[in-house]
Amino acid sequence: MFAIPLHRRAFSLIELVIVVVIIGIIGAIAIPRMSRGAAGAADTALIGNMAVLRNAIDLYQTEHGGDYPKVATFVAQMSTYTDDAGGAVAVKDATHIYGPYLRVVPPLPVSTNKGNTTVAASAAAGVAWIYNETTGVITPNTGTDKDARGVLYSSY
């Protein structure tokens, strides 16, 4: 066996080049994925917000004999205590025993109305969520905007 003297222990040029090439390959794979992260995060946030809103509406409908919240009082009915008829108050009492279903209406994370929390029956500037009180269907007010995959946000 040959012993390598202490002063000769070092990386060769070939080993250093291989390490640099490996780091370059990892960077070439990771950087494009990270740059799409913000758009993907907003899409994921929209999916999560839609699930929260839909679950809250379904729970309200279950506890109120099949009735959905009304558009005009949607925020109050979702974020405070309600009675059987949907009347909303801030403090729980003997008749207002249901809810609250949401702490706040989540903001729209994408599109031109990004950051808004308004709920309305039809699309308009500044409206985040379009809600049909007859069917309980809620959709984002994103018009014809699409996600990175080309899917309309309004179809989520």
Describe this structure in words.
With 156 residues, the protein is α+β, with helices and mostly antiparallel strands. Helices cover 36% and strands 9% of the residues. The chain is built from three helices and five strands. The N and C termini lie far apart (68 Å).
Descriptive labels:
156 residues; alpha+beta; three-stranded mixed β-sheet; two-stranded antiparallel ribbon; 3 helices; 5 strands; elongated
Strand-residue proportion: 5-15%
Sheet with the most strands: spatial strand order: 3-4-5
Instruction: Estimate the helix proportion, in percent.
Output: 25-40%
Taking Cα atoms only, what radius of gyration do you get, to the nearest Å?
27 Å
Give the SSE order as H and E letters.
Answer: HHHEEEEE
Sheet with most strands: 3 strands, mixed
Work out the number of β strands: 5
**Structural class by SSE content:** alpha+beta
Q: Which consecutive residue ranges, at least 5 long each, have pLDDT under 50?
A: none
Number of continuous helical runs: 3
Q: Gap between N and C termini, in Å?
A: 68 Å
Q: Provide mean pLDDT, rounded.
A: 89
Shape, principal axes of CA atoms: elongated
Give a concise summary:
The protein is 36% helix and 9% strand.
Would you spell out the secondary-structure blueprint of this structure?
Elements: H1 13-35, H2 37-63, H3 74-79, E1 81-82, E2 88-89, E3 119-120, E4 129-132, E5 137-140
Parallel strand pairs: 3-4
Antiparallel strand pairs: 1-2, 4-5
